[in-house]
Amino acid sequence: MNSDNRAIVHMDLDTFFVSCERLIDSRLVGKPILIGGTSDRGVVASCSYEARLFGIHSAMPMKMAKERCPDAIIIKGNSGTYTKYSNMVTEIIKEAAPVYEKTSVDEFYMDLTGMDKFFGCLKYSSELRQRIMRETGLPISFGLSPNKTVSKIATGEAKPNNQMQVSRGTERVFLSPLSVRKIPMVGLKTYQTLCNLGIRKIQTLQDMPVEMMESALGKNGKMIWTKANGIDNSPVVQYNERKSISTERTFDRDTIDIYKLTAILTAMAENLSFQLRRAEKVCACVSVKIRYSDFQTQSIQKRIPYTAADHDIIPLVLELFKKLYTRRVLVRLIGIRLSHLVNGNHQISLFDENSKLADLYSAMDTIRDRYGDRSLVRASGLEARTIGRYNPFKGEPPMLLANRRV
């Protein structure tokens, strides 16, 4: 369907982590709040609007943030709490929206195309926003327009805790006075490149020939130019909580070697965690499966706070395996599945860690991207000699990562 005929809503929970903490402790309302690693070497995962007035932003070193706002209240954060409230909002939207896409723990798209005939999309979206605030206590903003890009930018302009509609035909006028930094996919590096070209406002992009942007930035230049002109035909992709990635190992010879089994599970979990981070996703459920030599198959799973960190997933996998492996007979197959995936930064689970751990993950993943998934592994996982390098998030259904015999 042409984007001009669509009604797309983008909803975003305002300063989500901070809002959750304020629900727990009302004394935090109106005060500058920093959430993240509490040591000087920690990083800011989220901050309140009051803290932003001091120039503080997410990913800033905590030491620098405290220097800018000495009176800020620092909270380590609790990913379990944030997962709980994210799920509450998801359930409300799931019930109300015909098609919805959950793009992170605090961000949603909805396609309300055709509902104007019955409700009026703006009225329906506004009532849904009021319901979310009433039932969860969380502030939330939304933008409504004919496409995802304009709606997302409109949400940003509506914040904090408000709403905005951009009517069909007014997209370019709405976008033109805004900074090019507002365009999704324009990160800091691209923004600096555009500034060097004398491009700071979206209107400048709108007035440029698309060929000039292609010449300067290649394929991305054309995409940025298209978004700057308020054009985006991308669909709202129905969210499915059962979406998962998994990997299995079938043995040539059935085994009872616990050392070998735990080593392979460690390597498998480590690789799946890396695949999540590479795709910028986090999971909320971990499952382990065993098939014995008599083909009896058993599995166990556990819901967890959203994460893609090795140090969260690997110990849980080994714990589940220990609970599951009770027959003490030969094992034919073992498998791991990570499910309930959403887009998100794996640092959501690193509130209690310092920035060195986040830097370590980044360095490890960079090495694997360049030299291969098995170029850097834990010593405890060396027993697993083969781990598939197939990326489940590119071009194939993300249900099966690998099924190899070892």
Automatic annotation (TrEMBL):
UniProt site positions, description: Substrate discrimination: F17
InterPro entries, per the entry: DNA/RNA_pol_sf (IPR043502), DNA_pol_Y-fam_lit_finger_sf (IPR036775), DNA_pol_Y-fam_little_finger (IPR017961), DNA_polymerase-Y (IPR050116), DNApol_IV (IPR022880), Rev_trsase/Diguanyl_cyclase (IPR043128), UmuC (IPR001126)
Cofactor: Mg(2+)
Signal sequence coordinates: none
EC assignment: 2.7.7.7
Note describing how the cofactor binds: Binds 2 magnesium ions per subunit.
Domain UmuC: 8-187
Catalytic reactions on record: DNA(n) + a 2'-deoxyribonucleoside 5'-triphosphate = DNA(n+1) + diphosphate
Gene3D superfamilies, alphabetized: 3.30.70.270, 3.40.1170.60, 5' to 3' exonuclease, C-terminal subdomain, DNA polymerase, Y-family, little finger domain
UniProt key word DNA damage: yes
Binding site residues for Mg(2+): D12, D106
A GO CC annotation given for this chain: cytosol
GO annotation terms (biological process): DNA repair; DNA-templated DNA replication; error-prone translesion synthesis; SOS response
Compartment(s): Cytoplasm
Recorded GO MF terms: damaged DNA binding; DNA-directed DNA polymerase activity; magnesium ion binding
Primary localization class, coarse: cytoplasm
List of catalytic residues: E107
Keywords: Cytoplasm, DNA damage, DNA repair, DNA replication, DNA-binding, DNA-directed DNA polymerase, Magnesium, Metal-binding, Mutator protein, Nucleotidyltransferase, Transferase
Stated role: Poorly processive, error-prone DNA polymerase involved in untargeted mutagenesis. Copies undamaged DNA at stalled replication forks, which arise in vivo from mismatched or misaligned primer ends. These misaligned primers can be extended by PolIV. Exhibits no 3'-5' exonuclease (proofreading) activity. May be involved in translesional synthesis, in conjunction with the beta clamp from PolIII.
Listed HAMAP family: DNApol_IV
Xref: PANTHER family: DNA POLYMERASE KAPPA, DNA REPAIR POLYMERASE UMUC / TRANSFERASE FAMILY MEMBER
Similarity comment text for this entry: Belongs to the DNA polymerase type-Y family.
Oligomer and partners: Monomer.
Name under which the protein is recorded: DNA polymerase IV
Organism: Lishizhenia tianjinensis
Lineage: Bacteria, Pseudomonadati, Bacteroidota, Flavobacteriia, Flavobacteriales
